[in-house]
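Incident log, structure service

09:12 report received: a user says their structure output differs between two submissions of the same chain.
09:20 pulled the input from the user's history:
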Amino acid sequence: MKIRKNPKKNRTRHAIPVVILSTVLLFTMSVFYIDSTSSSAAGTDHLFLPDSTVTNTASDDSTNEGSDNSTDEDGTTEYLVTTEYPDEPGKAPELASNYAIVLDANTGNILYQKNAFDKQYPASITKIMTFLLAIENTKLTDTVTMSHDAVFGIDRGSSHIGLDEGEQISMEDALYGMMLESANEVAWGIGEFVSGGSIEDFAKMMNERAVKLGCLGTHFVNANGLPDENHYTTCYDMALITKACLKHDEFRKITGTRNHVIGPTNICEEERQLWQHCKMTNPDSKYYYEYCEGGKTGYTNDALNTLVTWSKKGDTELICVLMNCNGAANTYTDSKAIYEYCFRNYSLQTPLADYTFDSTQTSQTLDYLNSYYKTDSGSDITLQIDKDYKLNFNKNDDIKKLTYSIEYNKEPVKDGDTYTVGHLILSYGGNMIGTTDLTVTGYNPDGKQISSNNTEHAADATVAASAAKKKLSIHPLWIILAVLLLLAVLFVAYLIHIQKARKHQRALQAARKKQYEERRRQLQETFDNDLDE
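09:34 re-ran on a clean worker, output below:
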């Protein structure tokens, strides 16, 4: 007898692999989607990595990590190059660098920025922070002794000046070695000396100092910038760090030096010649820029080329930070082009000369102080800013279109009868271009004390109000995970249903078999009885 197949059972067998295949396909698509959205979004907390498929044919690029790859004058790249517009002096150049900023070294104003708040690998420009901590915590006459870790903890193919374990040099020579030749073992040795311990202790000092400077997206794990996925910063943060360094004459002197000699040491009898890597300060280089005062280069395979320079023309001094640039030559042409654009188009203005605070700003500031001091003081406060605040503003823009907002500190800073409560933020076209301290006088915290519960409610209200101002957004990852979870639940429910159906079918088959056997037994008995008769 021909057995008829159950079509429902066949459909079940086919449905299972289809569901599994659909789930896998959706998950794969989600991975590619997340990767693409992460690499294109600006202003997020993602770490934006360079495209490893880009081909770099610049002859001045070294494949050794930690090399500043600026040993050759000639450099070309197959892709982006600096593009200027001489017929349109008010138009900013297009840069080869993917991340850039120009900051006024005196006022802190942002004159130009391109993805300046996105996290990137800095490479050897990290050493600017190492210099800052060294100059703030040591003397130039201090002696730095190279440890085993400092000498052998780096890739010997990276930048170094050949110091040996136990070798001693002065802090001044160490700073020259680190900033001119970008010596990685020297940076390590400086870090250990400053922290009085390990390089991990020094990295903690680096991160704490970065926070005090107002850095928004920086995390360091070493003193030299050699590759680590947890070692990153932003162009804006590096500009702030450089701005702090420029307050020290020793920094200007060392980084502006073309050549320095380290004499014989306790181990090496020969002199060591040190040469500046940044070509913008070298009159013999085609990349020389007459207004450039100093700079620090950087390169690793992951970071690509990075460059920090500072230039002064007249009374205006600017800091330029470039990151993730394909080719050292392009960092020099980018820097010169954007400097020329800024010097040509920006001039100092005093936009706050006639600025006044409205009643809403005054009321919000009083609420901020009362919330912090847990009181309901009705003080008649006065908000104050520097009316002589200078802003480098683009002459092609309308200064009347500046917008202003208050950003409060986590807690006020009291100095006598004056409270520093935050900053007045100046923005143009939605981009922050300047900031100045906001202070308060006339505040008296004496008043009816508010209970902790009321304070918590007030704080919750403040947080809720702040959150309400932000656009509600759901990251695509959560949507995809929710869909996958729903599919998984439906798949499990489907399997349970199939198991129950199969169990029920087996029970029916068993019942039918039992019924058949009983019927067969009865027929057999009837047949046997008929034979007996």
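09:41 both user submissions now match this output. Likely a transient worker issue. Closing.
09:42 reviewer note: Residues 476-532 form the longest helix (57 residues). Confidence is low (pLDDT under 50) at residues 1-5, 7-12, 31-77, 451-473.
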